[in-house]
Amino acid sequence: MSGQRYCLALDLIDDAALIAEYQQLHRRIWPAVAEHLRSQQILEMQIWRLGTRLFMVMDTAAGFSFEGLDHAARANPDVQAWETLMWRFQAPTPWTDPGGKWQPLEQIFRLTDQP
After folding, report:
1. Sign of CA dihedral 96, 102, 103, 106
2. Which sequence spans correspond to the domains of the chain?
3. Is the separation of the CB atoms in 54 and 39 below 8 Å?
4. DSSP annotation of 6
5. If you count DSSP H runs as helices and E runs as strands, how many of each does the chain have, helices first?
6. What residues of the chain score a pLDDT lower than 50?
7. Helix (H) or strand (E) run with residue 29 in it
8. What's the pLDDT at 3?
9. By CB neighbour count within 10 A (0-12 exposed, 13-18 middle, 19+ buried), where does 2 fall?
């Protein structure tokens, strides 16, 4: 069984200095965070930005689950510290679930589905 691609959105606080710092921190994330992501069957993760809106594209292997990712993150103090730091820059979108962060996007078009 193959994995899946997920696309998610989150906003940044509208502050040029904070956005610059957020981008700088993502040039080389903490090794423990990268290791955690890979250990959870995440094969590739990209974050794209337009203004204050972030889009994450995440390709996963078979066996990936958001529940497993969240459970492992709660048990990892380095990941918890990273998430706390990131929330300093991040803001929920207008459509974010209460208490949530990254929100899944709904796929509405795929060229390969076209005749």
Report:
1. positive
2. 5-113
3. no
4. E
5. 4, 5
6. 1
7. none
8. 87
9. exposed
How many whole angstroms from its chain centre is CA 24? 16
Q: What is the rounded CA–CA span in Å between residue 93 and residue 110?
A: 24
- Please give the Cα distance from 14 to 18 (Å, whole number): 8
- ∠ CA 59-74-96, nearest 5°, is 60
The architecture in CATH of the region 5-113 reads: 2-Layer Sandwich (3.30)
One-letter amino acid identity for 74? R
114 by DSSP, 3-state: which? coil
d(CA 78, CA 69): 14
Helix ranges (DSSP H) in the chain: 16-27, 31-39, 66-74, 77-87
Q: What residues contact residue 37 under an 8 Å CB cut-off, 6+ apart?
A: 45
The CA-CA-CA angle for residues 3, 6, 12, to 5°, reads 150
